[in-house]
Structures are given as structure tokens and as C-alpha cells.
Queue: 2 jobs
Job 1
Amino acid sequence: MNPAIDDDDLRGYLAEDLPATEMARIEKSLRDSADLRERLERVRLDRVDAGLHTLGAIWRRSRVTCLSRETLGSYLLDVLDRSQAGYIRFHLEVIECAFCQANFADLKRRSQTEPDGRPVDRERGRRIFDSSRELLAGDS
Ligand SMILES: [Zn+2]
């Protein structure tokens, strides 16, 4: 059983001041727990010198927590359960992962517009997403 993560651990995590195994353990817990993500956000806001920058930099560097295009597509279509969607929102809006934000923006654009730029309806967007997922399946 892992020891509980307290606010000091979270501060250490934000400062990247922990051993790699501890960083990994906290990151995994963050992925699994919406409560912990809220606490991290609170701790982060309390810190004078911690910007989104620091936290974003940690996650971007490892990128193990990044979202697949399929996951982002499911989020876009609103077919995920609440905790999954919460994690993705956290990743995009709190971590502000530039990589996933760009991917998400791209998917959003593809799902919403025809090749000639006209808007598409939601069902059609879903079909486009399914077919692009097939195309993308081969390139990763
Ligand atoms: Zn990401």
C-alpha cells in the first residue's frame, strides 16, 4: 500500500523536487483521482512562484499522460464517462498541454467542417471521425 500523498508531496511534485519514482507515483495517482487533481490545483494556486508553466512543463516533458487522438475524439463527441472526461479537461485546460490542445483543435475542426469549410452536422461529424480513426490506426 502506497503512503498517502499530502500537500508537501504535491508541492514537491510541482517543483520537480522529488525522486523519479515518487514523481511517477504521484502522476499516476493524479490520473486516477479527481480529488487529488483538485488538491494539486489548490496547492498550485497557493504557490507564489508556480505558474501553469511549471506544471505544464513537467507533463509535456514526459508525455506519458498524453491523450490519444481516439480519446480526444471521444471527448469531442461527448461519449466518455464523467471521470474520463474530467481527466481530459484537466489535461487540456489545467495542464494546458500544447500537444494535446493542438490535436484536439485539429479534430474539432475536422469534425465541424466539410473540406470546403462548410459546417457539418453532429452525426456526420461522427462518421468522419470514425473513418479518420481507421486512417490513423496505421500510423502510430
Ligand atoms: Zn498532452
Note: The chain has a mean pLDDT of 78.
Job 2
Amino acid sequence: MNQPEFQQIDHGQVLLASAQFIGGQVALSWRHAAESAQFSPFWLRDHCHAKHSLNADTLQREVDTFSIPLDIAPAKIDIKDGGRCLSIVWKNDDRPSTYPAEFLWSMVREEGRGRSPQRTLWDRDTMGENFPSATQAEMMGSDAGLLRWLSLVEEYGFAMVTEVEATLAGVEAIAKRVGYVRETIFGGMWQFSANMAFKDTAYTSAAIGPHTDGTYSNDSPGFQMFSCLALDGSGGDSTLVDGFKVAETIRSSDPKAFEILSEVKVPAHYLGDGVHLQAEHPIIGLDRHGELVQIAYNNYDRRPFRLPSARMTEFYRALTLFNRLINDPTYEISMRLLPGTAIFFDNWRTMHGRHSFKGHRHMCGAYLNTEDFRSKLRVLRASAAAGAVTGAA
Ligand SMILES: [Fe+2]
């Protein structure tokens, strides 16, 4: 379901062929594509790229949208710069508007969505045993190394960091290399062992099935990292499942179940430690284009709710299918996190769990926000495109 990547379009090829005012709309066509598009004059004035209307550095709108007459109309339309630019002179406005052809094309093709993440969905067989990874020195040592590692996280929904300094400060440095450590009910950088310091299953030695964290939060943590500070015992392997792979499997094999899982908002709660959080999410979150955005599933934390009888029956059928697939070993990878290794994963995509263990296991980690991860990638990619980051993948 990934859309064509906006940045893959050769901007040199985006040239306007014609521009006409017809039926109250500005009709545009391009040289490189058969499709044409209509833009309303009001939208065009609101999205003017001239200096007086748009801050080129921050992309903040400087035009006063609400002073634009609702019946604004062009007096003159021209294609300039060999097709690279549209120019409009407005009636009753002495400031002409300009638009790069590639901007207008991007709004036709992408509706302003920008770059879609390039994802490789995986199961146990396709992932194999060579997990995406970088050493701490690589991802800490240069922007190119960080960009390569973050791109792996984006593509696969997780990546390892090896040769990690097995201290809380060492792991915190990795998190802060990406973005802000998020404060939650568990603190900022957290540590856990089987001591029930919090009223959460993570703080026991029991096996935990695949789930995402924070279903009880309106903004579930976007990314999570774990590292092991000390291990003396057996078992306790960490498990991961590509929730998007499971979701796409259901989309293609059982559309009705997919519809239920993506439509029904499942309430969840966290009660204890002086807090009582509640939120609700569909198990499979989609954007308005039908693209996967977020898996939110933790059966332990589901809050009681009811649907009309027939819908409730369908929901339990879909829930059972989802639960069966995420617990199917063909979708699961596992790893023994020894001190010196960290795992960083997309909590909106990659479900995590662990096998039961005996002995002492001291873990630490952090939550980070999705928006900060995406921001870091955009900034690094822009720098790489400008030549400021060398050797980037
Ligand atoms: Fe968890």
C-alpha cells in the first residue's frame, strides 16, 4: 500500500503544459503526464508561493487567508520559466502570485502528503537471522551513520544497536541521539526487573504475548528501546512481530475482519500507581488514504465495551483471527538481549513480547515520540540531499 515516493519524482521533468481559467477554475496540464487538474482561485491565492505570501525558510503562510475575496478570480495566467512556474495576476490585487510546477504537481499526486515511509514488511522467514543493526559508535559517531540506522528502523520497524555501553547513561545517549526521551507514568529513562515496581506485567517474570505499549494513551509511544543491563538466568528472549505484515495479510485474506479491526475503536485503561489512564484506538489504524498508520493492541489492557450483538460477534471473530496470526511462530522473530545490545522499534508497527525467564534480568529503556523520529529523518535527509551529510545510505 506504499504510495509512490514524492522525492523519487525527477523535479526537472515536472513542467506545466497549459493553464486556463475555465468554469471558475484554473485548469492545469503537465507535459509529463496525461492527467490534468483543476484548482480553485481561492485555493491558489491561499497557497501563493510569492515572498509576500509564504515564508520560504519556515514554509509558514503569511498571506491573510481571510482577506481573500471569496469570488477572487485571475486577470491573467501565464506559464513561465519553460514550464517550471505558474504566474497569476489577480483582479483587484496588485501582487501577482507564483507557483513552482513541482509544488502543484505534488498536490495533484500526493494531496500534500509528502514522502511515504519506505517499508519492507517481514515475517520470520523473510527477516532471517541477520537483523538490521548498527554499532553504537556508528549511529552515534556521524550523521551519516545515524541516517543509515534510522532508515533501517523506518524500513523494518526496528533495528538493533550493538556494542552498547551497558549502563543507563549509555542507553540514554542512544535515545537522545534520536529525539526527546518521553516522560510517562514510568518516568523518562526507565529500568525494570521482576519486582513489580509498577503494576504492569512487564515487571514480572511471566511470558508476555505480542502487544504494543500505551493503548491506554491517546498518543501511544511512537518508539521504544530496550537494553539489558544485567542478565543471570535462563529464558526471557525478546520477541517481535511485524504488525503491519499481519494487518496486510488480513486485509488481503479477510476484508471483513480487516474492516472491523480498522473501524472499531477498542478502549483500554491503565489503573494503578496513582493514575487512571483511558484511551481508545482501532487495532489497525489507517489514514484517510487507507494506508497503515498504527497497530494498537494489548489484550491485557482492553477495557470492557459492547457493540450491537451482530457487530460484537464479528469483532470477536476478527480479534481471534488477529490474535492467532500475531501468535503464529511464522510471524515472530526472537532474540536474546545480552548486555551490550539494544533494540529500538516502532511501537506503532512492531509488536513486542518476551518469553518467560528464571533468574535475574535487569532491563532499561525509553519511549520516544513518532513526530521526533520523523523530524530527525527529514532533517538528516534534507542535509544529505544538500550534501551536508556525506556517505549516507
Ligand atoms: Fe510492552
Note: The longest helix spans residues 309-326.
